[in-house]
């Protein structure tokens, strides 16, 4: 008997170790295959800025989560400023959520072997699609961890753990406003809904969440105090301006909303949601409140992500929900069926394996998230040709898919131009490894440069706030000119300043220099 327990014990450790190694390495591997400069490097420079002592919101306009800049700075501090350190960050978080998912499966009663398999499949679709640290993925990971802990505490009646849920949700919010905000609302609604199932426990649940929220608020103020972030800047850049974008997207995307189109787009996710709803109806009839709470929680978590996906500009990234929901459906199929159990489970498993294989091929192998799906990846060149900090990258982008060597030469030329510069300048570029590579500060008033999304354009709300912020940085740092490196960013300065304030010179195919004419009206 003792020997069996020992074998069981070590078997569990073996599964965890295998999951840790696999979930780290699969993300690490795919993060080196091709890049999308705007998305893949935005947080690279953010981490570098924080490491050099600059403060988000105060020193640069930021509409996405500041937490990732601080986490990247930590990795750069520990492991140096390079691509390997950078993607080790995202690979670590792929491990964190995959292992947490494994324990969640075990907790609901799914067999150990199946818990391992579904968690493994989950890790394939979680972070590898983008590879590099990304605000949506981090926000989703913290959101799921908050839901996992909430479910665990409710299921096992370990209500003291609820004290930590609000702080985890705040970490999600500091990664990105959404889906975190929807998750916070979801937790609140679930708590009041569960009042009807657990009236005796509701008081302690509610009390611990309130205490936990108080702890979370203290954590936020401590975060602001330690980072010296200006709260007024934070509210304008992170709350008020992004709200205008969110309202616009919701009005646009849901103007001609078609539920059938949505279900078709996420058919495999909805397949498992519908299966879980069927099991939910069964448990409602049996008045099995524990299972009702579990199913409602996981379905709400899935629906939050679907809603978030419909209003984000990014590629679809939520297909990791398929193995997550499949694991729950598998567990409830085992609990509810005897005669047809193996047939139903076989269908659930086969659909999961098929869909995971499909999206693995599309997003990991073909790098669809990074706009590389229809590009010949074998044409990729070596990232270290640009700079040693990019060693290991198979460099190819959607910008120059047939001639990555040309792009590499342009970037090497950019580094030489910037190296020889002796003026105070601003650098606007999607290639945000340039300043870190030269150990200089780019003075850019933005974290990243996506007109109307990362900063307001003329005519948008808060444009005057942004323009004043930009002008203040130019005057404070005695800026003489703006280097724009990137074909798509060529006219970015003209979106902010009057035409007679800038004199444009083309230095190379993707390299432009704008000298600032400080006698113009904008600088009066």
Please supply descriptive tags for the structure shown above:
single chain, mainly alpha, 2 domains, four-stranded mixed β-sheet, two-stranded antiparallel sheet
Number of domains: 2
The gross shape turns out to be globular
- The fraction of residues in strands falls at under 5%
- How is the biggest beta sheet arranged? 4 strands, mixed
| Unreliable sequence segments | none
**Head-to-tail CA distance between termini:** 85 Å
- What's the SSE pattern? HHHHHHHHHHHHHHHHEEHEHHEEE
- What value does the average pLDDT take? 93
Helix content bin: 55-70%
Specify the structural class: mainly alpha
| Largest sheet: spatial strand order | 3-4-6-5
**What is the alpha-carbon Rg in Å?**
25 Å
Number of helices: 19
The tally of beta strands, per DSSP, is 6
Description of the molecule:
It is a single chain. The chain has two domains: 2-370, no CATH class; 383-523, no CATH class. It has 19 helices and six strands. It has helices at 2-30, 37-40, 42-51, 67-79, 83-108, 112-125, 135-155, 165-175, 177-193, 199-227, 231-253, 259-265, 267-286, 289-311, 321-336, 341-365, 404-420, 434-438, 463-476, and strands at residues 381-382, 394-395, 425-428, 481-485, 502-508, 511-516. Strands 3-4-6-5 form a four-stranded mixed sheet. Strands 1-2 form a two-stranded antiparallel sheet. The protein is globular and about 80 Å long. The model has no long low-confidence stretch (mean pLDDT 93).
């Amino acid at each position: 008997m003792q020997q069996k327990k020992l074998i069981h014990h070590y078997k569990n450790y073996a599964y965890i170790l295998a999951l840790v190694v696999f979930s780290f390495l699969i993300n690490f591997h795919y993060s080196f295959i091709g890049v999308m400069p705007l998305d893949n490097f935005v947080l690279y420079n953010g981490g570098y800025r924080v490491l050099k002592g600059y403060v988000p919101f105060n020193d640069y306009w930021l509409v996405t989560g500041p937490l990732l800049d601080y986490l990247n700075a930590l990795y750069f501090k520990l492991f140096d400023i390079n691509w390997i350190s950078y993607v080790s960050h995202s690979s670590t978080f792929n491990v964190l959520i995959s292992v947490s998912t494994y324990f969640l499966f075990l907790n609901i009663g799914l067999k150990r072997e199946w818990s391992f398999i579904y968690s493994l499949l989950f890790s394939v679709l979680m972070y590898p699609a983008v590879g590099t640290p990304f605000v949506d993925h981090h926000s989703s990971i913290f959101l799921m961890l908050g839901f996992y802990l909430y479910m665990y505490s409710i299921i096992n009646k370990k209500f003291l753990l609820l004290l930590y849920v609000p702080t985890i949700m705040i970490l999600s919010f500091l990664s990105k406003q959404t889906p975190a905000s929807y998750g916070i609302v979801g937790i609140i609604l679930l708590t009041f809904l569960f009042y009807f199932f657990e009236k005796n426990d509701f008081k302690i649940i509610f009390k611990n969440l309130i205490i936990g929220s108080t702890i979370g608020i203290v954590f936020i103020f401590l975060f602001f105090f330690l980072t010296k972030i200006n709260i007024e800047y934070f509210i304008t850049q992170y709350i008020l301006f992004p709200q205008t974008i969110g309202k616009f997207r919701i009005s646009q995307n849901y103007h001609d909303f078609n539920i059938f189109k949505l279900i078709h787009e996420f058919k495999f996710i909805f397949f498992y949601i519908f299966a879980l709803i069927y099991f939910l109806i069964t448990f409602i009839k049996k008045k099995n409140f524990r299972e009702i709470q579990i199913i409602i929680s996981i379905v709400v978590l899935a629906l939050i992500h679907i809603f978030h996906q419909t209003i984000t500009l990014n590629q679809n990234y939520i297909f990791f929900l398929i193995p997550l929901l499949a694991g729950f459906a598998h567990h409830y199929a085992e609990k509810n069926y005897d005669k047809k159990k193996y047939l139903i489970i076989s269908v659930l498993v086969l659909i999961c394996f098929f869909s995971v294989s499909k999206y693995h091929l599309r997003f990991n192998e073909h790098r669809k998230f990074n706009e590389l799906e229809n590009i010949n990846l074998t044409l990729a060149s070596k990232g270290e040709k640009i700079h040693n900090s990019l060693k290991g990258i198979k460099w190819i982008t959607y910008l120059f898919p047939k001639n990555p060597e040309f792009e590499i030469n342009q970037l090497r030329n950019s580094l030489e131009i910037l190296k020889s510069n002796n003026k105070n300048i601003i650098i606007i570029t999607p290639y945000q490894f340039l300043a870190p590579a030269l150990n200089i500060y780019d003075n850019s008033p933005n974290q990243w440069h996506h007109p109307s999304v990362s900063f307001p354009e003329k005519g948008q709300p808060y444009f005057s706030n942004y323009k004043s912020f930009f002008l203040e940085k130019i005057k404070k740092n005695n800026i003489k000119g703006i280097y724009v490196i990137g074909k798509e960013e060529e006219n970015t300065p003209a979106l902010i300043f009057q035409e007679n304030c800038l004199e444009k010179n083309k230095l190379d195919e993707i390299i432009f220099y704008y000298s600032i004419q400080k006698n113009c009206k904008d600088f009066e």
